[in-house]
Structure to design on (407 residues):
């Protein structure tokens, strides 16, 4: 039987004063006296979120008398939350779940190689965000099983490279019909006294006129001088600030009961974006698990480690100095995965993790695919036989270490 909801005020000795985020009776987070963050279930009990993205109901198959139940499989493997992209019909099975607002739907988009973002400078952006949140979030207000809201998926924030312009250069090269075009030029010229020649000196490249920048972008030439990268980082941070604050305001106006999780990142996010995707705009962020914040020397905000999988090269490549017995690629992958999982669980900011996907994607080949379920519906034991024991002992891994006793 679930216990009565625990008030953060009633348990002040367990949590740092002023760190609680969220409403009683719903999922919320708070920081322990030792600095570790913890997610709390609606009944007030600690809840380490063990999430799987994209869960689908099992499809019947001719060679099976009955299709395996997806929710039952999740529970058997120790998972407790349906992630982004999961079928809404599975929510009735009693698992916690996250949901996506998808603010980008219907918004004017800035799109280029490496860039996919809603134009947060457009006159209709704020009103459209409020309308979207009202339609999507309001119906789930008061729902205790909802862990929190993801703002968008598949956003790309740009990275300036010699062969690919960054977000600032992309915006400076847009058509004048985009609000972001005018905002970008106003922003960058304000940094350099309103003069193109001053901008050119700061960037270390000749900028005869605005069309010069557009020509570079059309030719996939990214400006990566120190001066340009500095301005690009400032622009990205300003963009992220507008995005996170406007989406959070829209969600909280429509549904003040649930946590704001920010956007889902498909890969490492620029530092400027991570700096803005934190409280008070975001309650719990979703950085990729290989891109977690440092645990020392900075203010820690709670995170759910996202896109967990180990099919990348960093888990498979041979070490510079090999072990005494040569490991197979699978053995090496799983050994590194186990170490990385334990390190993630012990991170003081981590309050949960999200496995990248439920089923193998097209073109993925086991055992180096990312699904917990293969294309034919069979269990991906190369993953579940590591994840199920980890899920069973994760709370033990998260317990603070006791100081050694004096002799």
């Amino acid at each position: 039987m679930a216990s009565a909801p625990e008030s953060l005020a009633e348990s002040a000795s367990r949590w740092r004063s002023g760190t609680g985020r969220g409403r009683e009776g719903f999922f919320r987070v708070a920081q322990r006296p030792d600095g570790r963050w913890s997610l709390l279930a609606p009944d007030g009990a600690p809840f380490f979120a063990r999430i799987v993205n994209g869960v689908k109901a099992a499809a019947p198959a001719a060679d099976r008398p009955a299709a395996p139940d997806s929710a039952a499989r999740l529970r058997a493997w120790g998972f407790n939350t349906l992630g982004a992209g999961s079928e809404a019909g599975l929510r009735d099975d009693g698992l916690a779940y996250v949901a996506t607002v998808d603010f980008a739907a219907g918004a004017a988009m800035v799109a280029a190689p490496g860039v996919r973002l809603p134009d947060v400078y457009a006159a209709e952006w704020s009103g459209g965000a409020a309308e979207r949140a009202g339609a999507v979030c309001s119906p789930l207000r008061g729902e205790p099983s909802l862990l929190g809201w993801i703002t968008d998926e598949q956003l790309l924030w740009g990275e300036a490279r010699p062969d690919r312009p960054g977000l600032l250069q992309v915006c400076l090269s847009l058509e004048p019909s985009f609000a972001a075009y005018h905002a970008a030029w106003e922003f960058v010229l304000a940094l350099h006294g309103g003069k193109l020649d001053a901008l050119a000196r700061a960037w270390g490249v000749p900028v005869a006129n605005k069309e010069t920048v557009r020509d570079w972008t059309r030719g996939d030439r990214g400006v990566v001088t120190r001066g340009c990268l500095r301005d690009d980082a400032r622009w990205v941070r300003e963009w992220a600030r507008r995005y996170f604050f406007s989406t959070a305001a829209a969600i909280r106006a429509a549904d003040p009961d649930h946590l704001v999780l920010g956007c889902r990142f498909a890969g490492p996010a620029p530092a400027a974006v991570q700096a803005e995707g934190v409280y008070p705009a975001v309650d719990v962020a979703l950085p990729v698990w290989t891109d977690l914040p440092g645990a020392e020397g900075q203010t820690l905000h709670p995170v759910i480690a996202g896109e967990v999988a180990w099919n990348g090269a960093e888990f498979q490549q041979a070490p510079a100095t090999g072990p005494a017995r040569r490991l197979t690629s699978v053995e090496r992958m799983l050994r590194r995965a186990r170490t990385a999982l334990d390190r993630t669980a012990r991170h003081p900011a981590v309050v949960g993790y999200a496995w990248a996907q439920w089923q193998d994607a097209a073109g993925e080949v086991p055992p180096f695919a990312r699904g917990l379920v293969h294309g034919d519906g069979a269990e991906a034991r190369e993953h579940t036989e590591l994840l199920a024991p980890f899920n069973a002992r994760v709370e033990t891994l998260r317990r603070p270490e006791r100081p050694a006793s004096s002799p």
Observations:
- The chain has two domains: 1-44, 45-155+232-398.
- The radius of gyration is 23 Å.
- Residues 1-44 form one domain.
